[in-house]
Design goal:
This protein is mainly α and 130 residues long. It has four helices and no strands.
Length: 130
């Protein structure tokens, strides 16, 4: 039962971060801030915008993981961060091969995934001790 709760905590935290990111992306596509899906987004300012909210959502994901973890909230959040790093790196390979934007963007996502989930866990653990 504890193992299932551990897996659920990491999954739900990752889902929260991904859903928030893709939801914000969709809104910005509909508002025509971003080019249509599948077209390259080369403008550095738009990529910085996407990175900025993904950083925040990565922290949110780490917070959710730590909040739902049945024990060792930091360990769970770090596991989620490692998964985020791997997923971002894999997505970066695909995006680079499809030439969907600058190579630095997926690299930045992969590099920041672990620190963001760590920060989310720190914030949750500080909140929990109040």
């Amino acid at each position: 039962m504890t193992a299932l709760r551990s897996v659920a905590a990491v999954f739900l935290g990752a889902l929260a971060g991904a859903a928030l990111s893709l939801g914000t992306d969709q809104v910005l596509h509909v508002l025509e801030v971003y080019p249509p899906w599948g077209q390259p987004m080369r403008e550095p300012g738009l990529n910085l915008l996407a990175l900025s909210y993904r950083l925040v959502y990565g922290v949110v994901g780490g917070w959710v993981i730590a909040r739902l973890a049945p024990y060792a909230p930091m360990g769970h959040a770090l596991a989620g961060g490692i998964l985020g790093t791997v997923a971002s790196a894999a997505g970066g390979v695909v995006a680079t091969r499809m030439d969907l934007g600058p190579a630095w963007f997926p690299i930045a996502l992969a590099v920041t995934a672990l620190p963001c989930t760590w920060l989310g866990a720190v914030l949750q653990m500080k909140h929990a001790t109040r």
